Amino acid sequence: MIPFALALQKTGGTELAVEGLLRVFGQREPLLLLAVLFGLTALIGLFISNTATAVLMIPIALSVAHHLNASPYPFAMIVALAASTAFMTPISSPVNMLVLGPGQYRFTDFVKVGVPFTLLVMLISVLLVPWLLPLHGNGQRSGATDQNSTKVQYQTWGPHRYVLATSTRPLRLRQGIKRRRQWALV
């Protein structure tokens, strides 16, 4: 799944998904976007393993955080928690599959218990994660431009410092001209 996630990033699939999410749900309410990311991750987790789900959804969540100019921590944590909520089907997790036969459970048993439990975890996660990991940094920003015409901005979120490098020289790509922007942990 890692090559698939990398392919989504390199071909622009991640940005397409993020733009669609932001177009449909807007940029005004980050809690709504956290809930949507949780639901989307849990939905994908019904059909593939939780690890693969997290690998696919983390780049989308981090890109949403970048577009909202918010901390990436709450968005990454929501995806991690949602990928771990493999309660709704026996396919979602190997542990669910292990207890299916010996416990004489049916597929519908997982749905009956898993859907309300997933909704409860979603509600608790969407309320507590932004409280534990604030959505916005403490406002400490600094910036500079180097001799290669690359603008560098620093943003502090919690104990970590990130750098956003924006090249003022456009990149020529097959899709047209784009400016290079990328966050990295410093």
Which labels suit this protein?
4-stranded antiparallel β-sheet; disordered C terminus; 54% helix; 7 helices; two-stranded antiparallel sheet; alpha+beta; 186 residues; single chain
Polypeptide structure, described:
A hairpin with a 2-residue loop joins strand 2 and strand 3. The chain has helices at 2-11, 13-25, 30-44, 50-67, 72-83, 94-100, 107-132; strands at 141-145, 150-157, 160-167, 171-173, 176-178, 181-185. By secondary structure, it is of the alpha+beta class. It has seven helices and six strands; from the N terminus they run αααααααββββββ. It has two domains: 2-132, no CATH class; 141-185, no CATH class. The two termini are 27 Å apart. The strands form two sheets. A four-stranded antiparallel sheet has the order 1-2-3-6, with no helix packed on it. It has a two-stranded antiparallel sheet with strand order 4-5. It is globular and about 50 Å long.
